[in-house]
Amino acid sequence: MRQLITAPSQVNEALKLGAQFVVIGSAITRPRNITETYIREITQ
Known about the structure:
Layout: H1 8-16, H2 31-42
Helix pairs in contact: 1-2
């Protein structure tokens, strides 16, 4: 099943529900900024 993730909080929820990985498509345009935002959210 695929689910479009549009916010960092959704990554956290997906991982809690058992997702083994997530792919953040927009990371191609601003990889560092987007990666930092998502990592900060899921490690809180």
